[in-house]
Specification:
The chain is built from 19 helices and no strands. By secondary structure, the chain is mainly α. α6 crosses α9 and α15 packs parallel to α18. The protein is globular.
Length: about 475
Amino acid sequence: MTLPAFNPIAALLLTSLIAAAVLACVRDYRWSARLNIVASLAVLLVALRLLVDRPAADDFFIADDLNVVFIVLNAFVGFTTSLFSASYIGHELDTGRLTPGYLRFYHATFQTMMFGMDLALTANNIGLMWVAIELATLSTIMMVGIYRTHEALEAAWKYFILGSVGIALALFGTILVYLAAVTDIGEGMNAMAWTNLLRHAATLDPSLLNIAFVFLLLGYGTKVGLVPMHAWLPDAHAEGPTPVSAVLSGLLLNVALYALLRFKMIVAANPATIPVGPLMITLGLASLVFAAFMLYRRGDIKRLFAYSSIEHMGIIVFAFGMGGPLGNFAGLLQMIMHSLTKSAIFFSVGHVAQVKGTQRIADIRGLTTSHPLLGWTLVAGVLAIAGLPPFGVFMSEFLILTTAFARTPALATLAAAGLLIAFGALLLRLGSLAFGEPAGPTPPVRASFLPILAHLGLVLIGGLYMPAAMVAWFQNVAGLLK
C-alpha cells in the first residue's frame, strides 16, 4: 500500500483549519498561546516547502511564482505575530482588558484568519478566492471588536459595513468575468479557473472585462485601503488588538492586492481592453498624497501608522499601475519591505501603548530614555518606513521613482512630493515620541523583541543585498504581471 503524495497546499490549509478547531477548545491561555505559535511555525515550514515542491494546478488550487511570494510572506509574518501575541495578549489578560473566554476566541479566530488568507492566495478559482477573502475579513472584524468597548464595536461595525460594500462590488466584478469567460470556455468550474481565464484572455469579451475590472478595483481596493474607500482602516487599527493591526497592514491588504493583480493579468492580456494602469495610478497617487497630509493630524499612535499603511499601499498600487518589468519588480519589493517594516512598527507600538497606558502621542515622550531597546527599535522602524537608507524601503521607493521619472516626470514629481510630505510627518512625530524627557509611567516592559529584530534585520538586509536567486524570482514574477 502506497501513501498519498505530500501536498504542501493541502497541508498549509489543513494545519490552520485544524489549529483553529483545537484552539477553540483550549481554555488555558498559556497553552493556547503556545499551540498558536506551534501551528504558525508549522504553516511557515510548509510554506517554505512550496519554494521547491509545487503541486500541479487543478480546478481549485494553484502554486506559482506569483502566489508563493505572498504565501511565504503571509506565513512568516503570521508566525512572528503569534510570537508577539503571546506576550502582548498575556498583558491584556493580566490587566483585565480581555477575559480568558475572549482569549480562547482570539487564538481560534487568528488561525481562521490565516486559513482564509492562505485559501485566497492558493485558490485557482475566482469564486473560491472571493469566499476566502470574505472569510478572512469577517475573522478580522470579530478580532477588531474583541475588547467590546463602544469604540471597538463602532470600529468593527464600520469595517463590516464598508467591507461588505467592497466585497459586494468585488462579487459583481467576479460574476462579470465569469460571464465574459462562458462564451469561450463554457459553463462551470473551468470558466472560473485562473489558469483557463489567462489562457483564453485574449478572446474574452473586452467590454465585460473593462466593466468588471472597475468593480473589482473598487471592491478589492476597499480591502487594500485605497482612498476614498479607506475609512474603515484607521478605526480598525486604533481600536483592535495590536497583533490584528500588524496582520491587517502586513498581510490582509496584500491579499486583496494579490486578487487585483490576478485580474489585472487577465485584462492586460486582452488587446481590446482599456489600459487599467492609469486607473491604478490615479487611485494609488490619490491614496499616497491624501494619507501623507493626514499623517500630520493624527493624535493616536496607531492611527498614525494606519495612515502610513494607506500611503504605502498607494505607492505600491502606483508602481503596479505603471507596470513593466521594473515597475512590477519595484512594487513587489515595496510590498514585501512594507509588510515586514510596518508589522515590526506595530509590534513596538503595541508594547509602547501597554507600558505607557495610552495610545495618545501627546502623552508618550522620551522612549529611548525610559525604555531604550523599545525606543530604539521604534526609531529604526520609523526611519525604515520613512524610506531612509540603508533599509529596503529606500531601495524599493528609489526604483519606483526612477522608473516613474523615466516614463512620466509629472506623476513621478507628485509621488515624490507625497513621499516627502509623509517623511516630514513621521520625523516630526518621532522626535517627540522617542526623545526628550520621559512622560507618563515608566514600568518595565515585558516584550518579545525577537519578532521586531527579525523583521528589521530582514529589511536592513534587503536594502544592502538581495541574493541572485531572489532577484531572478522577482524578475520572473514581474514578467508575469505585464
